[in-house]
Amino acid sequence: MNKITFNPNDLKGIQNLMKTYGNSPEPFCGKNESGESATISVLPDRITVVTTQSNGWSRISTYYSDGTVKETYEKRMRDA
Question: The whole model's pTM is what?
Fold first, then answer.
């Protein structure tokens, strides 16, 4: 699996990732600058980043090729 670098403030970089990896069969996994786990799904028209935050929430950020960003949050369930 290739390694990618994702910068949410770089629209040209986001568009390039979509062009290069838009048909990736699996998401990319890694850590953000705060050490939190992140899963990045790259599609031809958007990138969705799910960040498992240390505060018990998951942040779901979707970046579109036109620069639009949608962000939602979900409370994680504790392991049983």
Answer: 0.89
